[in-house]
């Protein structure tokens, strides 16, 4: 299918937001006690702080540390659900018919006609609410897709239309089922899905590596012999073309054959991160703030260490892809920079919810965006919060 045709099919709109005062800190859970020079954020019921940054090459990761956490064992992640069969994702169509085979357990039978690029169908038969994060990749079907928005799927939900974006140009096969990929796309792509909600912007971010204004777009900068090569536009295009004729996003991670050192970079950052957080006594890591060079660009914070740990491996790899897409630099963000990044945001607020299940909330302005995902039952709890330094 031609790229222009895909873009015509792939565009998703975003509802107009109303102007409102932004949330204070992490979606109202955090109240700030920061002076002019910055300071740690504190929570009324659960204290947390930022740990010292862990740096490798042009990337610095600041751990978010907490002494307390919520019990999130009652939630299932998308990769867990797809791997266990609790969830089935399939192509969608206006004439699709779905039914369950009697006595077949959680395995659905589908009849799919008129598949749509920007919508799939999710059938969930798990016994715990399912958490979906924007940017999670599902592999297979007619084309690999990413989840378009954070949400929670309740136990016993009816087959659910699922808004997605395509990240694989060049394949439109006869398949209709999807599997777990254990991949979340890197921040430039994830931003375009979660905030901009535009298919063409998503694809441009995939093909260019990074949409940040400091990104390498054509020619790679000079780097030291020890530094990994930047993931320039040509490097992305070359790796995809040579390793994935269908231009599959997942092949970016195929470092042994692509020549892109995602695995080696992630392994070294993991070693340094483990060493920096190994001496913690009564605190555990519940999230991270990520900087590239001197720019604090991203944060992911979760309700518990366990929930963070379930996402951390694929989040780390996604941050690394972004690091490789940006130029090498000797400048690094400071702890005060990271604290300043977490200051309350004032901007346009948009809220969506499913009564008794979840609430999704976004606050954004020209420079930043915050997105929070709250579960509403059995009690209100913020499961995930992210803040983005918008790339353009």
Helix and strand layout, with pairings?
Blueprint: H1 3-10, E1 18-20, E2 30-32, E3 41-43, E4 48-50, E5 54-56, E6 59-66, E7 76-77, H2 78-84, E8 87-93, E9 97-100, E10 108-111, E11 115-124, E12 130-132, E13 136-140, E14 145-147, E15 151-153, E16 160-166, E17 178-184, H3 187-196, H4 199-208, H5 233-243, H6 255-258, H7 262-277, E18 284-292, E19 295-302, H8 305-324, H9 335-341, E20 347-354, E21 358-364, E22 368-375, E23 381-389
Helix pairs in contact: 3-4, 7-8
Task: Give the structural class.
Answer: alpha+beta
Distance between the termini: 29 Å
Annotation field: number of helices: 9
Quick check: average pLDDT? 76
Say how many strands there are.
23
* Count of spatially separate domains: 1
Radius of gyration: 20 Å
| Regions with little confidence, pLDDT below 50 for 5+ residues | 1-46, 94-114, 215-226
Globally, the shape reads globular
Major β-sheet annotation: 10 strands, antiparallel
DSSP helix fraction: 10-25%
Q: Approximately what portion of the residues adopt beta-strand conformation?
A: 25-35%
Give me a quick take on this structure:
By secondary structure, the protein is an alpha+beta fold.
Descriptive tags:
392 residues; alpha+beta; six-stranded antiparallel β-sheet; disordered N terminus
Tell me what the structure shows.
The protein is α+β, with helices and mostly antiparallel strands and 392 residues long. It has one domain (3-389). Helix content is 24%, strand content 32%. It contains 9 helices and 23 strands. It has helices at 3-10, 78-84, 187-196, 199-208, 233-243, 255-258, 262-277, 305-324, 335-341; strands at residues 18-20, 30-32, 41-43, 48-50, 54-56, 59-66, 76-77, 87-93, 97-100, 108-111, 115-124, 130-132, 136-140, 145-147, 151-153, 160-166, 178-184, 284-292, 295-302, 347-354, 358-364, 368-375, 381-389. Strands 1, 4, 5, 6, 18, 19, 20, 21, 22 and 23 form a 10-stranded antiparallel β-sheet that branches. Strands 8-11-16-14-13-17 form a 6-stranded antiparallel β-sheet. The relative contact order is 0.18. The model is unreliable at 1-46, 94-114 and 215-226 (pLDDT under 50).
């Amino acid at each position: 299918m031609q790229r222009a045709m895909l873009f015509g099919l792939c565009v998703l709109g975003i509802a107009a937001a109303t102007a409102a005062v932004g949330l204070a800190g992490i979606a109202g859970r955090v109240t700030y006690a920061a002076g002019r020079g910055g300071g740690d954020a504190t929570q009324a019921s659960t204290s947390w702080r930022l740990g010292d940054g862990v740096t490798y090459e042009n990337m610095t990761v600041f751990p978010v540390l907490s002494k307390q956490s919520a019990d999130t064992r009652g939630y299932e992640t998308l990769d867990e659900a797809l791997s266990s069969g609790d969830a089935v994702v399939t192509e969608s169509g206006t004439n699709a018919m779905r039914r369950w085979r009697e006595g077949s357990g959680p395995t659905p039978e589908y009849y799919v006609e008129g598949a749509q690029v920007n919508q799939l169908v999710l059938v969930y038969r798990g016994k715990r609410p399912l958490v979906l994060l924007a940017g999670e990749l599902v592999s297979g079907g007619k084309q690999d897709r990413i989840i378009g928005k954070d949400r929670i799927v309740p136990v016993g939900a009816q087959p659910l239309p699922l808004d997605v974006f395509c990240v694989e140009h060049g394949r439109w096969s006869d398949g209709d089922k999807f599997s777990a990929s254990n991949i979340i796309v890197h921040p430039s792509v994830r931003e375009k899905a979660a905030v901009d909600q535009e298919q063409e912007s998503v694809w441009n971010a995939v093909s260019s590596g990074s949409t940040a204004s400091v990104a390498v777009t054509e020619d790679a900068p000079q780097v030291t012999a020890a530094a990994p090569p930047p993931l320039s536009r040509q490097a992305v295009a070359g790796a995809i073309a040579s390793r994935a004729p269908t231009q599959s996003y997942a092949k970016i991670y195929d470092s042994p054959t692509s020549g892109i050192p995602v695995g080696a970079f992630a392994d070294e950052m993991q070693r340094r991160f483990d060493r920096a957080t190994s001496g913690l006594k009564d605190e555990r890591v519940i999230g991270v703030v990520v900087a590239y060079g001197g720019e604090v660009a991203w944060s992911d914070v979760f309700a518990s260490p366990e929930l963070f740990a379930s996402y951390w491996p694929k989040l780390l790899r996604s941050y690394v892809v972004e690091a490789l897409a940006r130029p090498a630099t000797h400048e690094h963000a400071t702890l005060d920079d990271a604290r300043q990044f977490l200051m309350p945001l004032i901007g346009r607020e948009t809220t969506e919810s499913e009564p008794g299940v979840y609430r999704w909330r976004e606050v954004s302005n020209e420079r930043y965006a915050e997105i929070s995902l709250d579960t509403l039952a059995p009690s209100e709890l913020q499961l995930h919060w992210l803040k983005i330094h918008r790339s353009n």
